[in-house]
Design brief:
The chain has 10 helices and 9 strands. The protein has about 270 residues and is of the alpha/beta class. Strand 1 and strand 2 form a beta hairpin. The chain is globular and about 60 Å long.
Length: about 270
């Protein structure tokens, strides 16, 4: 992690929509795939300004109904080394914590599948972001950890998310000792969808992205809305939620009808993304 020379400044994190500028991120949307690439060398550290930019980008995606997948990646040897150390101090700490919470609130509101492609270390906030995505591909040499405790702090979102992902005991080890895990261990714990050889990561990600490109945007979005919205509900409430999405939203789409007709006719569906 490195120091940041930018001056602290106040920000209203609930202002919507924000103006989107891209100093620290590369962003584009091509054929239904939105790509967000951290571009703050050498370690893609998430200063307050990076989080602001990320939130503005996520907010701009909320209303793009043709997006089928949001991909997160890092430019260079790191996915992200986590928070800027200086941002833990003084007034910037309040903004940092609120902006990072807003990232996950915005990801939840997207109704779009998310994929993290991790080609290097994902630490602290970078680890939490990668683990929070619906799918996470990792190169064999990637590593994951929450080292904040070694500097006298902890990750607020990680403290909530990790027990839900890996259980209390392993979460306690990660959060309280700052221990890191390799890609294979992260896959075993369910933090990573799949680990591939470093030199095959790009091709594996491209193949997975292609599968999303071949899908229907509204169907993918509604399927994600169903399972994400059900995760923290009791089973009866979760079932009512998924049934509501299916009966009152999915069945109103043109793509749902053509998809079923295509299967029965043994042909490929012609998605209208409607």
């Amino acid at each position: 992690m490195t120091g940041d020379q930018d001056d602290p400044h106040d920000v209203d994190i609930y202002a919507s929509p924000r103006q989107v500028g891209h100093r620290f991120l590369h962003f584009d949307t091509v054929q239904g795939i939105a790509r967000i690439t951290f571009n703050r060398p050498p370690a893609n550290v998430m200063a307050v300004e990076v989080l602001e930019e990320l939130n503005a980008t996520l907010e701009s995606l909320e209303y793009q109904r043709d997006v089928k997948l949001v991909v997160f990646a890092g430019n260079g040897k790191y996915f992200s080394a986590g928070f800027e150390l200086a941002d833990h101090l003084g007034d910037r700490a309040y903004v940092m914590v609120e902006e990072f919470r807003a990232v996950f609130e915005n990801m939840g509101k997207l109704d779009k599948p998310t994929l993290a492609v991790v080609a290097g270390p994902a630490l602290g906030a970078g680890f939490v972001l990668a683990a929070a995505c619906d799918l996470t591909l990792a190169g064999a040499s990637a590593k994951f950890g929450l080292p904040e405790i070694k500097g006298g702090v902890f990750n607020t979102v990680g403290a909530v998310l990790m027990p839900r992902l890996v259980g209390r005991k392993k979460a306690a080890e990660l959060i309280l000792t700052g221990a890191s895990v390799g890609a294979a261990e992260a896959e075993r714990l369910g933090l990573v969808t799949r680990v591939v050889a470093d030199d095959k990561l790009e091709a594996e990600a491209a193949a997975l992205i292609q599968r999303f490109q071949e899908g229907s945007a509204p169907i993918l979005q509604l399927a994600r809305r169903a399972f994400v919205g059900a995760q923290d509900l009791l089973v009866p409430d979760a079932l009512r939620h998924t049934e509501d999405v299916y009966l009152n939203q999915l069945m109103a789409t043109e793509d749902m009808e053509d998809g079923l007709n295509a299967v029965m006719a043994k042909r490929k569906p012609v998605w209208k993304d409607k």
